[in-house]
Amino acid sequence: MSVVPPVSLSVRPEFLVATKEIRNKIGLEVHALKNVQLNDARVHIQSPSKDEDLANPGTIQLQLAKNQARTYEVDGPAFPASGPLNYYVKSNSADYGQNMIAIRHDHIPSIIYFKPVQVPLASMQLATYGKRIGYIIGAGDKVPQALEQMGYDVTLLTDKELSRNSLTQFDAIMTGVRAYNTNEWMNNHYDKLMKYVSDGGNLIVQYNTSNNIGPVRAKISPYNFTIARQTRITDENAPVTLLKSDHAVLNFPNKITQEDFRGWVQERSIYHAAGWDSTKFETVISMQDPGEKPDAGGLIIARHGKGVFVYTGLVFFRELPAGVPGAYRLLANIIALNRKKSF
Question: How far apart are CA 55 and CA 306, in angstroms?
């Protein structure tokens, strides 16, 4: 038997973006662990760094039977704000701000623990260009949620959607991490994707691996390059050199500076491009781990017909959920590449 509070809280999405133009909403789910009736409950959003309430949406009615749940839509904080944010349900009698996690397996004793309901917040100056993005699901990441937080309309694309739908509706198409490793059907859509690019689209391929466990079985690019097995930047503070400061990817719609590479988490990039055709591809940034040679394969860009093809090993799948503003700003610029002539 475990002693538990009356309610457990959880939130969706698991991170927030706040800009001058965007004030995203969050869904706060209240799950009753016991019968609960609170007529004076209030939702509070608190900044631990400032120890102040950022929002108080007013009173909510909590009348739930045990195991019932209800989701309340709550405005996120207005720009500018500081994070991470803690979410609470407060009443005159008690405060609740914990999420109950239960681990139950036949081979081990049941474990129940609680953690604060805390949401990373990226508060930033962010401009975007374009609206509709098609996202080809790979091994699984939270980039689609981040794109929606940025204000894009995101459509998840599987084998069937790619076969049936016109791609011209999308301002950009982005592949999830390891999409070409995990989806054998990607090769079936090579010609259609290349036509999309040639007709003016923007295909952004996030990293894929090159090894015996999950080799790339499909063609990726209109031009030749390989994926390096070892080349990556493991130091999140590794120096970054801007090779072409006038390139659109560093200027439109956001001006990218060294400040945008501060605060990255865990690493900068993995599985760089290698052996690319320098007559077709451009490189715009170079990075290096301590004691290693500079490498520019973390982001390569090529024009194909009227559109753009991009391969990137930059770890957006880590930086966006962690709320790193520079990663959001750089990704917005990559998405905008086919809307402003860059080279």
Answer: 46
Last residue of a domain, one of 75, 90, 122: 122
* 222 and 279 assigned to the same domain: yes
Q: Which strands, in side-by-side order, build the sheet including 307-312? A: 153-157, 132-136, 172-175, 202-206, 307-312, 299-304, 281-283
Looking at residue 342, what is its pLDDT? Answer: 46
User: Which tokens go with 68?
Assistant: 């019932």
Distance between CA 62 and CA 68 in Å, rounded? 11
Of 139, 129, 126, 53, the C-alpha closest to 90 is 53
Place of tokens 């894929």: 208
Cα separation values, 214 from 137, 184, 282, Å: 16, 11, 27
- Quickly count: other Cβ atoms within 10 Å of residue 270's Cβ: 21
Which range is most confident: 48-52, 315-319, 335-339? 315-319
Domain residue limits at 256: 125-339
Residues 231, 165 share a domain: yes
pLDDT of 139: 93
Q: What is the pLDDT of residues 125-170, one digit of tens each?
A: 999 999 999 999 999 999 999 999 999 999 999 999 999 999 999 9
pTM above 0.85, yes or no: yes
Do 130 and 116 reside in the same domain of the chain? no
